[in-house]
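Protein in question kept underneath.
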Amino acid sequence: MVFPDYDYINLEDETTVSELELNKKEFLVNHRKGLVIDEVQKMPEILSAIQIVVDEHPDAAFVITGSNNLLLMQRVSQSLAGRTAVLTLLPFSIAELTEENKSVGLYNIMLNGFYPAVWAKNTPPQDVYRQYFSTYMQRDVRQVMNIRHLSEFRRFIVICASRIGTEFNAQGISNELGVSIPTIQEWMNVLEASYVAFRLPPFFRNIGKRLVKTPKIYFYDVGLVCYLLGIHTSQQLETHPLRGSIFENMVVCEFLKRQYNNGLDNNLFFFRDRSQHEVDLVQEDGMRLCAYEIKLSSSIHPDFYNNLKYFRSLFPNDTVSTQVINTGAEENSSEETGHRCYLNV
């Protein structure tokens, strides 16, 4: 849809692959005015041929996509350095769901997550995430990253899912699993490189306060989190002790998706000092700061604003917006606090 005038091939198609294997360069030259190559990780050697064609024909235009980031990015950086623009496409955002899908309710949305197969094919989310996780463990982790202790690594992922929205404590996880801290750090790097989880860095400026400098951990998809935590129904999710953390995870990811979908870099942080003043999300644009408190609540309580007011007091000249994001159905404002409340799903 984005490139309607481009030709399209999918390297899952054996006929297409056979045609390319006869003469990759000739095929690419014939389609150099615009070609979408899907599932490019199935034939990574085609990237070297693209490099040659692009160098010889500056007007050539190729869109290459793939679902295996670990393999794909390594080959792209080697073959097409300086010749590419890279877009990170995370799972669906809430805005990309249809109104019909949104009407299923907040807890169903969080349970389903945002992978296309769940929504496009009405596939039960447990089936999708079971297959995804199994494939991830057997293919990406074992073959690409050469992790030997798969059972411990599997437990590591589940532990990380149980700690979303908290500071990433490598020492604590190391003690729980009985593996070294360097191994825990390496495994976390694997989750980030394969777009399973990410670390949200703490916001830091030299303001004479003792600020926390340890990142928080989130997953790129809350449906996978629900699967890893053994949550199978929306009713289970509604009473689960981590439901607030899962909602927070979803909202943080919505901000991240908005950045990436607009071709922008990640500019998100959280704030916490040693006095336990915490703001869930801080967005930095130059010197301009927007601060957000995220609450799984349909009502607004005055206490929700305390940390936002504290944050504004620390950065009075740079803070341009402080908002509460919750599940309310209508917008409220408070003259007493002076903060606008942004009500999400």
